[in-house]
Amino acid sequence: MKGCSKHIQQIAEYIDGELDEALCTRLEEHLKECNNCRIMVDTLKQTVVLCREGKKERLPEDIESRLNDALKNKWEKKFGKKS
Ligand SMILES: [Zn+2]
Fold this sequence. Notes:
Elements: H1 5-16, H2 21-33, H3 35-55, H4 61-79
Zinc ion is lined by residues 1, 4, 7, 30, 34, 36-37.
């Protein structure tokens, strides 16, 4: 895989929605062809959810699943639904 390590910080920012649009596009190009980084995104997303849960005692289950759905929709919009 080409240059995955440099994407790790970008992936974190990407998940927080703080990544530059240009960088975002480049990262998404990379994600399309890099399974490793896609797994990283998934893992980080889960971590982010868990962290937010930790801060606020516990997220109600419906909010948590709405958050997951939102992430999933966002993902599918960007990368297309995998069937
Ligand atoms: Zn990669």
